[in-house]
Fold each of these.
Amino acid sequence: MFKTVLIANRGEIACRIIRTAKRLGLRTVAVYSEADSAALHVKLADEAHLIGPAAAAQSYLVADKIIAAAKQARADCIHPGYGFLSENAAFAQSVADAGIAFIGPPPSAMLAMGLKDRAKALMEKAGVPVVPGYHGERQEAKFLKEKAYEIGYPVLIKAVAGGGGKGMRRVDKHADFDTALEGAQREAQSAFGDARVLIEKYITAPRHIEMQVFADTHGNAIHLNERDCSLQRRHQKVIEEAPAPGMSAALRAEMGNAAVAAAKACGYVGAGTIEFIADGAGGLKSGGFWFMEMNTRLQVEHPVTEAVTGVDLVEWQFQIAAGDRLPLKQDQVPLNGHAVEARLYAEDPERSFLPSTGKLIALKFPDGEGLRVDTGVSAGDEVTPFYDPMIAKVIAHGKTREQALGVLANALDNTIVAGPRSNAGFLAALCRAPQFRQGQFDTGFIDANLEALGATPQGLDKAAAALGARELLTRERCRISDQIERDADAARSPHTSPWDADDGFQLSGPRRQIVPILADGEKATAQVIQEARTTTVTIDGVAAAADAVAVATSDAVYVLRCGRQTKVAFRDLSLDEGGDGSSGGTVRAPMHGKVLALLVEEGAAVTRGQRLAIIEAMKMEHTLVAPLDGTVSEIAVAKDDQVAEGAKMIVIVAKEQ
Ligand code: ADP
Ligand code: ADP
Ligand code: MG
C-alpha cells in the first residue's frame, strides 16, 4: 500500500478522499490556490502546498506545479478527484514519469475514452450499442447540417471534447441548426480549446443510466450496479439515485455486461463510469440503451453506489492502484436498499439558477440515520466565482426509494445556508414531486416542471420578511439595553433591560410603529405592535413565520424558510430618493463572469429584449438583453474582461417618446 497521497483537487471531493486515505493510514497532502488558503481540505490534510493564484488555470490545472509539490512532499501517489486534471492523459503520464502512482486508469485508456467521437468508434467495434449519429472527422457547417437532416430531428450537437454538459445544443428543426452549431462550437472552443463536434439522434423521453465499473491490473472487471441520473438541468445532474427505478435484474445484467465490455475494450484499470442514454418511453427495456461516454475517474455521484453496495470506492481505488485484485466477484456485489443524492448549490433557482457567490454566513446540516453529507466548506467560508459553486452533496439511504426520498427531503428542509442563495428548497420540492416519486420522469422533467418546483420568481415571502423585521428590532433592543446595562451602576440586576421592564408602554396601551425595511432588495413596511412582553410584526397583514430560522449579521437578518432565503435589513428612507429610475437603462453583470462577446457598439439603436452581450460564469453562458428601447450611450467593458457581480456593463438611453 502507499504511504503518502497528494490530492490534486479541492472542495468536497478532496475532503472525501482525505477521509478514506487517513482511515487507511496514509499521510495526506493537499494543494491549494491563494483563494483556498483557509479551505477545509487544507485544514484536513496533514500537509498543504500553495500552488498559485485563484484561477484554476494557474493553480489546480497546472500539472508541473502539482507534480513538484508531490515530489517535495515525497508523495508516492496522486489522487486527481474529479474535474480539473482527472481526465487529462498527459497529466497521468507525467505523474507516472515522475515515478509517482496515478490513482486512475492508464493514460492509454483515458486517451481512448477522452474524446467522444473516438470513444464511440471504439465502442462500435467492441459491440457496445452507441447512439446513432455522425461522429466522423468532417466539421464543415454545411456537411454537419446535412448529417443532422439525415439523422432526423431532434438531434443533439455535442462537443467531441465535452464534459459537464458544456458545448451541447439540442436542435429541433433544420432552420435552427446553424445558430445552435455556432453556439456549441464557441462554448466548446472556450471550455476545451477544441471546437469539434459530433451529432447524435436526440433520444426522446431520455433516461440517463450509468454503470459504475471497476477493473484491476490482473484482467478482472466488474460493475457495481447502475445509477439513474435523469434529473438534470442543462445536461447537468441534479439528483442521482441507485438503483434506477424500473430496472430489472435481467436488464441490469445486460447493461452491466455492456459496461464491462466497454471497460475491457479500452484496457481500463480502476474506477470508471459508463454512461448510457436509455429510451424511457414505456419503461426501461432490453436493447433500449446506448453508450454515450465513459468518465475515466471517480464520479461526483459515487456515494449512492457506496450506500447500496457498502463499498468505499476510494479505498478500492487505492487498492487497485497498489496492484491488488478486485475484492469482490460480480455475483458478490451487494445491492441493499435505495440511495439518493442531491447536489446542493449556491445558486438562485428563482433567477434561472444564477450562481450566487459570497460569504457563507451560516452553514448547518442535519444529521440522522441514513444520512451522509459530503462538503468542502464550512460557515465563514466564501463561495467564490473561481470554482464550481457546489456547497455539498446530501445523500440519503433507506430500505426503499420512498423512504430514502423522504429522509432526503426532510434533510434539505433542515439544511441552513445563509448568505449565498441555495437550491435547497428546489431540491426538496423535487424529492416530493409526485411524478418523480412514482418513478415517472426523464431528463426533461425539471424543465417541464419549473413552476411547480418553485424555480420561477416567487415574490416576497412576507411571513419570512416579517420574522426578519422582528429579529432586527429585537437585536436593536438588545444592543440598546446592553449599552444601558454597561452604563448602569453595578447595583442593578444585569438581567433587567428597559424593554422587559413594566414601564409606561402598556399603561398607555400597545405601542404601534411602522418600520421601513428592505426585503430581498424590495421595499416593504413592517407594522409593529409592542405590548408589555410581546412584539407582533406583520407585513401587509401577514404574521411572522413560525417555521423559519433567522441568522443575523451586523446589518441584516437572513431568514431561511423551506430552503428559501429572505434577506431583511432596515431601510434608510433618506436613500430612497433617486434610487429608482436612474438605473433603468444601465445593464449590470448579473454575476461574476467573463465577457465573451459584445453584440452592440456605442451609438447603436437597440430594442427592448435585443441581445447586447454574452458573459460566461462558471458553467454557462448568459445573454444580457436591452431592458428598453433606446440608444447605446456607453459600453463600460471590453471583450474578455472579468466583471464583478453588479458591475456596470452597458448604458442605454431611452428612446424619446
Ligand atoms: P459527473 O459526471 O461526475 O457526475 P458532471 O457530469 O456534473 O459530473 O460534471 C462533469 C465534470 O465536470 C465533473 O468532473 C465536474 O467536476 C466537472 N465540472 C462541473 N462543473 C464544472 C465547472 N464549473 N468547472 C470545472 N469543472 C466542472
Ligand atoms: P457530458 O460529457 O457533458 O457529460 P454527455 O454525453 O454525458 O456529456 O451528455 C450529457 C447529458 O446530455 C446526458 O446525461 C443526457 O441527459 C443528455 N444527452 C446526451 N446525449 C443524448 C442523446 N443522444 N439524447 C438525449 N439526451 C442526451
Ligand atoms: Mg456525461
Amino acid sequence: MRVLTLNCGSSSIKFQLRNMDAGKVLASGLVSRIGEDESAIETTSGGHSRTRALDIPAHGRGLELIVESLLDEEYGALTDVSEVAAVGHRVVHGGSCFTTSTLLTNGVIAKIEELAHLAPLHNPPILQGIRESVRLLPRTPQVAVFDTAFHAHMPAKAHVYALPYRLYAQSAVRRYGFHGISFASVAQRTDRLLGGRLAESKVIIAHLGNGASITAVDGGVSVDTSMGLTPIEGLVMGTRPGDVDPGVVLFLMRDLGLSVEEVDHLLNKESGLEGLSGVSNDMREVEAGASAGDERCRLALEVYAYRVKKYIGAYAAALGGLDVLVFTAGVGENDPAIRAAICEDLEFLGVRLDPKANDGARGTEREIGATEAPVRVLVVPTDEEGFIAEQTVAVVASL
Ligand code: ADP
C-alpha cells in the first residue's frame, strides 16, 4: 500500500511517498518559498535528488509539481496516481472536535475551516493543500492527522486558563498544545526502547526544533504541554518568545502604539532566538555567534536552556516523578551543548548525562544518560511523516 503524506506550511509543502508494506520511503521532498521570489521544489526518489527553481505562486501549483515529480518517467516512483492508496495530511489545529485522525469528507473539511480562527497562520494553507489534493486525487481517500490530538486528554487543570470561565465555555479559549504528531511518534518509539513499559512510565519529551514545545507524558498520555491556545506559549523558539507576561502585550499596544498585526508579527516572527540574538533564528548560527564572543547570542542560549530546564522541573512535579527524559527535533537530536546546558544541575531529579554518549548523539537514536542515573535520558529522532502514514493506513483500514 502506497501512502502519500503532505505537510503544508504557510509557504511550504513537505511530502513523502511510502510503501507501507515494505516500510520504505519511495520518494520525498519539499516545495519551498511558495508565493515568493525564489520558490523551488526539491525531490529525492530512487536515490536521485534534484532541486528545481520554479515559479510556484500558490499551494495548488506546488501540489501539481509534487504529483508530476512522482510520475516523472525517469525518476518517478509511480506510473499512475491511482497507485496512491491514501493521502495523509498534517492538520495543525483540530480544536476540541477532532481528537483522533479522521477521514476527510466535505463535512470534516468544513469543520476544519471553522477552526481556522484558532490557527490563522497554519490551518488556511493546510486547507488549500487539502482542497488541491482532493482535486488532483479525487478517488483517493484522504485523512487528517491532527497536531492537537495527542493532547486531547490533558486534564482540565492543565488545559483551562484562569480567565473568566465564559471564554472557555463559549469561545473555546483553552490550552490545546501542538507538535502532537511528533510527540506521538516519539512516545511510540520510546515505548519500544522501554520494552513496552511506557504505560507505567513518567516521561518528559522535549521537541526542540524551530518551533519548540515540551510535554509531560504519564502512562502514554499527554497530561500537560507547553504550547497553549496558540504555538506562542511555552519554550523559547526560533522566532517566538514562549512565555511572556500578557501585560507585555498591553504595553506594546497601549504605550508603544503597536497594532494587532504588528504584535502578532513581533510574537511570531521577531522574537525567540532571532529577537534575543539579533543574529538568527537558527541555533547553529546563534551558537557560532556565542563562540565568537557575541554577548547577545550567549544570552539567547542561556535563556533558551533555562526555560527548558524550568519546564522539566515543573513537569516532574506535575507527573509526581520522572523516569525518562527524551530529546527530539532539530536542536534536541543534534545539539549536545544545548542538551548539556539543559541537564546541568538536574541531578537532584535523577538526571545525569553521560558526556561521551551525549556528544556522540547527533541525529541518531541513543541513550545519553549515565548508566547508573535513576532517570533514563534518550535522544529519539522524530518521524512525523511515518506517524501520519501509519495513522492514514489505520483510518482507511477501519472504513
Ligand atoms: P522545524 O520546526 O522547522 O521542523 P527542525 O526540527 O528541523 O525545525 O529544527 C530546526 C532547528 O534545529 C534549527 O534551529 C537548527 O539550527 C537546529 N539544528 C539543526 N541541526 C543542528 C545541529 N547540528 N546543531 C544544532 N542545531 C541544529
